[in-house]
Each structure stands twice: as structure tokens, then as C-alpha cells.
Specification:
The protein has 493 residues and is α/β, with parallel strands linked by helices. It contains 20 helices and 16 strands. Among the domains are: 205 residues, 3-Layer(aba) Sandwich (Rossmann fold); 140 residues, 3-Layer(aba) Sandwich (Rossmann fold), CATH 3.40.50. The longest helix is centred in the C-terminal third of the chain and has 24 residues.
Amino acid sequence: MSSPELSSEATGWSRVRTAFQQIWGYEDFRAPQGEVIYSLLAHQDAIVLMPTGGGKSICFQLPALLRTGLTLVVSPLVALMENQVQDLQQRRLPAALLHSELPSYQRRQTLRAIEKQQLRLLYLSPETLLSEPVWQRLCLPHVKINGLILDEAHCLVQWGETFRPAYRRLGAVRPALLQSKPAGSQISIAAFTATADPQTQQIITQTLNLQQPQKILSSPYRSNLHLSVSTVWTPRNRRQQLLRLLKRCSSQAGLIYVRSRRESEQLADWLSEQNYKTAAYHAGLSGDERRAIESAWLSGAMPFVICTSAFGMGINKPDVRWVVHFHAPALLSEYVQEIGRAGRDGKPAQALMLVSEPTGWLDPDDQQRRQFFQTQTHRQQQIARTIARQLPASGHITEVNRQLQQRSLAAKDVAIALALLHRAGSLEWQDPFQYQLHAATLLPTGKTAANELRSYTYSHQCRWQFLLTAFGFPPAADWRCGHCDRCTKKSGR
């Protein structure tokens, strides 16, 4: 398909709709796509909450393609970038990606394309955005940058302190880029996600320094998605309950979520022994291994995958009929994100979570798992406090890393300490590399998010009523979904 003329600024809504029809072939926008596109074309900052499968990528791709200049799309996962860029390139549209797994010749080719202003969309991770070769090109005065898109923005909150600390530096990107651009330049920032409760929205707004953001929020409610939580009494019972579901549903597309790489491999090996065709998917696999599993699942050659949270973002498979959380996720937002991968075609789908009975006497797995992650978090906090006391009052992250590495402190631990200090309001990023420390104070580790997931797990109220209230869409007090395990149990169905 040949692309429409995209080199001049979009001036009329009819032009926007024409481009949309020519590129993607759809007749009209789905709500709230039109509202989001209008907002971005008006150079407004925005927080956009849209259910998975709602067509959010088009919302930022179309405005980017209608403008002269570059839009940066910050994305958390290589697989997510590859899927979107491959689709754009197949449509012969000026998009590219940068990540650490690319061959060096391809990286050089993309960096030259940035310099020559040949791209409209550039996908990259927070770490790649802040790498020296990329940052130097983006700061060239003649390289026009229209916007910064944060895709899967919940990852800033979910991972931005102890797993991907570069997220915490993104708020300094816009002012730093504008310093290198001609006077009057504008760079808007938009954060897109399927799951963000009011507190998460506030953290995203503060961290990115959004300016009077337009909030376009869609309810996560899915009337075709049946939610249930089942108590397991022993590790053997957990596997038996999974097998019962697989006997009913194994010919249909599904996903099984676990908490760690090791657990995904162990469960995949065990199910293979039970003659189920499946595989373990996690961030430790090579790019080729990940793509092979994705392809087998998308084509139906492999009905289901055992995966960590690394799987599913941006992968569009409408006919997923079931999602099982073999282990409870860490956060309620993570849960909503993952169950949202079922039933995108609007047909009935089910989401089952398996949890130990509350005491954990016979099946202590869930308690041990929670304790393991809490211990890890506590250890990171302790290391961060040690580093915070040794940080100079101000400095460049590269130089500070060099100094502290001489004292046997790892660069990753330094980055985490800086992120935790930023979260506590004790540190300010003057640009994405230069910080100013106000105090060496860290906030205590919060357990609110974990407690919220636990409350959902053992709550007796309607599952969807609980979720909608938690995410800022409280229904009427007497409202019930009628299709979760709590509602069907009360109605005797």
C-alpha cells in the first residue's frame, strides 16, 4: 500500500480521516481514538487510558505520520517495538526502532536516518533513548522532534524504581531537548496505558512533568470477560486445577502467567510431560527464541504459552479464550493488563487466578513468593541507603558511576538509588544525566499495592465492581456484573 503524502502539517480533520482510511483501511475511528488524535495534533500533553486491543497505537502513530518531524515512542519491550514497527514498515511508512539486540550496521543506518530527518516514528527503550550516540543525534538543532510517547506507561510505576530506573529520568528529556532546538519549538508528551488507577496517573504526571495534561480515560470493564479466583490447598491441587481447565480449553488459545523465569520453565516442562504442546516465555530468551514462540502462538500451532509479564504487550491476538494466573501477580494493575489479553474479539472469555488458602499451612508457595520479593525489595532499599550517603550533592551520572564503582558499587545499584531518591523527592534531574541531591532520604517500602491485590483476591464483592472502584470508575453501589464467580455464586448459577 502506498502511503499518503505525509510531509506537511495536518490542518483539517477531513485530511486526518483520509489518511487514517488510506493507511489502515478502516472507515472511522473507534471511541476514543478521534479524541486522542485531536488532542495530540493540538500539541497537548495527555494521559490516555484505553483497554488492551482498543487501537491505542494508531492514536499516536497517525499524528506522527501527519507531521514533518520525529515522534519518539518509548516502549518497554523489544517484542512490542518489533511488532509495531514491522507493521508500519510493511505499509511503507517511515518508522524505525533502536535496541541493543540490533546488528551494528542497522543501528548506524537508523542513526543516519535521524540526522537526515527521514523518520516520522522512532521506537526505543528508556535506556536506549538516554544512550550517548542516540541522545547526541536527537539534540542536533536541525532534528525536529514533535512529541514523546510513553507506551505502556504503567511500566514507569511498575518497573521505574528497582527494575528499569531510566524511566525516572524521562521527565528531564523534554526541557533538555528544547534547549537544543530553535526558539518556539514544541514537544508534547503523551502517556498511553490500559491500566492506571488515579495514584498511578498522578505518579506518571509528576514523573514526566506533564503540563495540564488532557485526560482521556476509558473504563477497563469488559462485559464478555468472566473473572474467577480459585483457592488451592496444596501444590498438587494447584496443578490439578490447571489440568482441569486445560482439558476443557486446551484446543482454544490461552495464556498461563507465572512470576519467574524458573517457574515458567518448570511448569512448561511438566505440561510437556503431560503431552501438552507449550513453551516457557520470559525476558531471558533470545530475540529469535521469543519470536519463534510468539509466531507459533499467534498461528495456533501452539495453543498456549507459559509466560512471565514479559509476554503479551502489543501482541494482538483477538481470539484468546482464557488467561490463567497460576501465581497471583504483584499488582492489581498488572492483573488487569494481563486479563485484558483475553476476549478482544468481544466473544466470551475467562480469567482464572489460583491462590493459596489464606493461612498457607498446606500450600505456603504464595506466602514464600511474596516474602522472597519483599526481601529483594528490602535489600535494594538497604543498598540504596548506603549509596545515598556516598553520593556527591550534584553530579553527572556517568562520572558518579565511575567514582562509586571504585568503591565496588555496581552501576545498576547506583541507578536504582538515584531512582528511589527521585521518587522520594530528595533528588531532582536537571537534565537526563545531571542531578541535584536535596537530601539522602528514601521513602519506606510501601505495601499498599500488594495489599490491594490481596484484598481483591479474598474479597466477597463483585470482582468487576472491586476493579472498577480501584481504577477510578466506581459503579452504583448496587451494581453487579453478573458474570464473575462472586455474582454467579450469589445468584446460584
